[in-house]
Amino acid sequence: MPLLPRDEKFFDMFTELATRLTASARLLQKMFDEPNQLGQHVAAIKEIEHQADDLTRTVIERIDTSFVTPLDREDIHMLASRLDEVIDLIDGTARRAQMFHLSEIREPARQLAAIIARSAASIELAVSQMKKPREIGARARELKVLEEEGDAVYREAIAALFDGSSEPLEVIKWKEVYDKLEDTLDQCEDVGNTLESIAIKNG
Q1: Helices (H) and strands (E) in the chain, counts
Q2: DSSP string covering 56-91, please?
Q3: 99-120 pLDDT tens trace
Q4: Choosing a second label site near 89 at 20 to 30 A (CA), which of 97, 109, 150, 201?
């Protein structure tokens, strides 16, 4: 049975969260491409993070006040929270870049940010197709492939970081930034798994 929500607003709010996720991911990619404008991009990401927090609270409040929800209440809460968590991780990565005064950006960070931006676009497409459960599986598989691609970049970046050519302080800084970028990709895959689980349950 296709998803025919009685309360379309939940799906509208998921879409709003997904578009903010994509916007924050694109800003993260720009931040690593334009380190001379680091502060500007970090501030813009923080603003989106605040908007996403407000949206997530609105979703949770609506769960409590809606008599009939289109999906299980637990699934609505989980999906909104996991979308919000990706944005929180992007914000955390951006704040660390600013805190560490990164001025010269390493290529693996650019690569990981680009993969995150592709993952965000896949999530946004998946959310827009929530009423087409058959499409969700393809997006979940795509997110898994992107996570694996990012994991390979991450492993190579960490190996290079500890090859003895970097100053200890630089190793500490970049290890934390790479970890946050990888955590973000892991969370993107979790969103895909959540969407697939919801689609199977309601398909």
Answers
A1: 6, 0
A2: HHHHHHHHHH-SS-SS-HHHHHHHHHHHHHHHHHHH
A3: 999 989 999 999 999 999 999 9
A4: 201
